Amino acid sequence: MNKIITISRQYGSGGREIGEKLAKELGVPFYDNELITRAAKESGFAEAAFKHAEEKATNSFLYSIAMGMNAYGSQDFGFSNLSLDDRIFLAQSNIIRSVAKEGPCVIVGRCADYILKDIPNVLNIFVYAGIDFRVDRATKLYGISTEKAAEQVMKYDKRRANYYNYHTSEKWGNMFNYDLAVKTEDIGIDGTVDMIKHFIEKFE
């Protein structure tokens, strides 16, 4: 396998588990929170700063104000004019490009599909599922109530959408940005892994 796989996912759809299993079966590195650790180490920013940047993206309008840039994600500014969060995003983007240059891998989240859009050997996957499936999965994984899980699913999806939309000027979840979209509740986690592997084989 000579491809770089990016996985974007709705909260509770199983995207991270799918990415981990896929990377293991393909025998390639898996990156998620590891990107934050590496970006922090190489940029000098604290790991908490990277986590906090994404956590703030709950309200798109307020997030845009907080970032000190316009709501359309325009990045035609000098580095000195970028907010702290934009510099953090830039540092993370540089790490994502670096790991992509190192060879085949699986990257979950972090706007990787957009950051690597000009690289030819990238396959972008979007993983999604119905709300009931995701709420049920969240209650089982995190031991929280159905009400809390439903609230968390909506909050995290909104956060991911705002973060992605702001930094990329694209729309999170737009199927035209992906090579394959898989509804995990129909075929399960392992079934999704098998489908992606089959897709990679056909693609190559």
SSE topology:
Layout: E1 4-9, H1 15-26, E2 30-31, H2 33-43, H3 47-55, H4 60-67, H5 84-102, E3 105-108, H6 112-115, E4 122-128, H7 131-142, H8 146-168, E5 180-183, H9 184-203
Parallel strand pairs: 1-3, 1-4, 2-3, 4-5
Looking across the biggest beta sheet, what order are the strands in?
Answer: 2-3-1-4-5
Radius of gyration: 17 Å
Number of folding domains? 1
User: How confident is the prediction overall: mean pLDDT?
Assistant: 81
Number of helices, counting only DSSP H or I runs of 4 residues or more: 9
Helix content range: 55-70%
- Any low-confidence stretches, pLDDT <50, length ≥5? 60-80
CATH architecture: 3-Layer(aba) Sandwich
Task: Give the full name of the CATH homologous superfamily.
Answer: P-loop containing nucleotide triphosphate hydrolases
Portion of residues in beta strands equals 5-15%
The helix/strand class is alpha/beta
Taken from the alpha-carbon principal axes, the silhouette is globular
Give the ordered list of helices and strands: EHEHHHHEHEHHEH
